[in-house]
Amino acid sequence: MxxxxxxxxxxxxxxxxxxxxxxxxTCSPAAPAGRRELFFQRCRWCGTPAYRRSFCRACGxxxxxxxxxxxxxxxxxxNGHAHHNTWFVAMDEGFNLLCQVTGAxxxxxxxxxxxxxxxxxxxxxxxVPVVELAEPVxxxxxxx
Length: 144
Description:
Blueprint: H1 16-26, E1 38-43, E2 49-50, E3 64-69, E4 72-79, E5 86-91, E6 96-102, E7 114-119, E8 130-133
Parallel strand pairs: 6-8
Antiparallel strand pairs: 1-2, 1-3, 4-5, 4-7, 5-6, 7-8
């Protein structure tokens, strides 16, 4: 996050340092699995949602507000090799992010499948958010 010389309050009424500490504390990989809070940014000028960006991809502004995501989305496409099981997911709020799908084999995950957030990583940390399929995987129908 870019730091400015003028301290200003965030949308949640915190100083930027306290907000950054709060995000790191609530989204750390060591946090319990019950923490399914995913925060994203929304441009204060045009309202475009984004995830981990330093400027708005639509208007170029650098002023963002932080919002909590519902944590649900749809699988768009696979990214990389199958053994990593990473996918691009379109979240319901309108932003896309790279996620790792857990609880299902890579060949079982289908484009268009609904997913929910299981674990979130810190914005400055390494790794990607982890999601799981919202509906259990049905065995494939026999075609013969």
